[in-house]
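1st attempt posting a full record on here, be nice pls
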Amino acid sequence: EEEEEEESLVMGGSQDALSAQQSRYWESQSSDVRGMLGGLEEVHEPDVHGSLALLDSLVPAAERRGKRALDCGAGIGRVTKEVLLPAGYHTVDLLDVRQEFLDQALRNIGRRAQAVGPGPAPAPAQTGAIDSAAGDSGGASVAAAAGDAASGSGIGELYCSGLAEFDFGLAQGPRWHLIWVQWCAIYLRDEAFVEFFRRARQALQPSPHSFIVLKENTLSGHAPPVYDADDRSVTRSDRHLRMLFRRAGLTVRCSRLQTGLVEGLFPVMMYALQPAPSALAAAALQKRMNE
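the predicted structure (as tokens):
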């Protein structure tokens, strides 16, 4: 509770106001790996290796084939291109606050890799989704990226939205076997963090091989949150994050420290999350009541 109060003091303002300030920060960043990693390009290789190793330990390769993933805070598609598609996920949908980054993701991954794979029907269009081919940054159409279906796995839908505003198309039911959230949850206040992960939990396909993965900067022990005045982010302790996971109805199935990063950075933790038993029971009860 003390940490949560401290975070509220250092962040200040509403989530909407913070999101607007954070968006302006990212408008100043270049659409390349250097821009995505704050100038620390040397982080890229160990980060990719650590993420692939985590997925290998969580989900058998056969359970990834033909499955759909969502890359949250996708930027230019660095994680999609280097981790999620090579790991075997058939279709990866991208979520980011900037259309320019999403357009660059299409260019980076290439049209041969673009194909909407098997799985649930696309969710209805929501405010903030974009059609990159039309270049419509403010429209409400969803981009089901056109491409060569014979090319196999690739980019599916593009969503231009902040995390706090994204509704996951919950009206259409669960869609994804993997929801990957990397270096972007630091831009959410506690209440928005909990609501985002609660919606993510509801958007997961019911399967023992479905996970939400959060990969994020952390603090050790009981350290109070650290606020960054430049990008308006907040870094939380492992203890604080686990408290927020519980509030979102999630259980930590696995946690792992990312190794091999340059000295002087915050520790980066990977958390593999699944719905807590209590959340599953509540969902099952609600489903029976609706029948």
